[in-house]
């Protein structure tokens, strides 16, 4: 979501705002259509060269990018702080993770199993060989809430480069100056490491982004952001049959079993810490907690919220959306006799100001709602981006679980149990797996590990593609497609299937998995 337009800002630029004060500090010009066209031409020209490089070579490119990020840590953290208000400690941690994940995706490429390479005899003298090839130039639309992790560089960009695809990134208007500087560093690092011209580029501006989606050169789109933005891209790209891997987020549930409720104070503290982390601007924020009636979770959350200070949201638009969304949730909750708590909890919903008074800072809130009011189409279940969450107390675990699995799917769920042997936990986890991409047991959902087994996705409307992940080794799979050649001789096969295995990757030969020798 873009910052509110400033009447004093000239058209054709993305203005840069400080969320802590609301003041503008500079702007970045939009990329002209002819410049976008040239960027796309270069990306298309680079595509076969990048695809033909060994995965180990691409690993070296990504390592060079990570080194550049680390070398400019102080500069990048300061610039990100000026445009996001997220705080130096949070931003340093995110930048460090971004560098580490960039290296990780290079290692996944070099390991080679994502290529799915295999060959076999199919009767007589016939053979069949199959492997994955890069799809070509990829457009990436980064997120406002993770300027390093899902921005100009991050999971989408690094996994696409690792898979062998050129990348064209659209700068997010929430942090345009940071986007430009990051793009300069990434492009320079790739150039110094020997990547072909056209491997990576940045465009700025809404119209430039649309030009990417419409361009014949672009073969896939990766997006992290709102459901409205993601679905608009899906619909626009559908005209060309281009896949859009949109991670959009929804209301992520937490289920506390009867046995787990004995630690209501600890769960309340963790819940508040998780849904207010980063001012509640995580796609993995827990938004709806189910707890046994009488466990005192709402009262415990109320006490914890009193210790959480106001914090700025990323943009004026997000702050307005939070305040308006919170007012709508509060009206819906109060209409059913539910309770609202948090800073200024006694204020009526209509008293919540729509315009920020100190930058884009907002208060965290929690709402106690009734189980019978949680049903498809309920206003209470609409995502509100920011530090607000719902708590629902249940008298019967089976009834609460029935209600939970009728709700719209989401990215992730947490389940808190009483430990091994908890009689409710097995059914809760099994039923939630039909609703989410990941279930976190006795852990909060906001942590996402960059690893071989991570799944960061979920059924629609959490994502546009439930078969994909935007984090972890499986992220490369979005940017390759399988091909096969029958009766190929060595001249027709890629290095991935050459008899000498020059890329040193695992392959399946005549149905048997074979690993590269040392």
TrEMBL record:
UniProt KW Oxidoreductase keyword: yes
Looking up Pfam families in the UniProt record yields:
Aldedh
Q: Which SUPFAM superfamilies match?
A: ALDH-like
Residue stretches making up the Aldehyde dehydrogenase domain: 16-458
| Keyword Oxidoreductase among UniProt keywords | yes
What are the alphabetically sorted keywords of the record?
Oxidoreductase
Q: Give me the ranges of the annotated region Disordered.
A: 1-31
- Superkingdom classification of source: Bacteria
Tell me the GO molecular function terms. oxidoreductase activity, acting on the aldehyde or oxo group of donors, NAD or NADP as acceptor
Q: What is this protein called?
A: Aldehyde dehydrogenase family protein
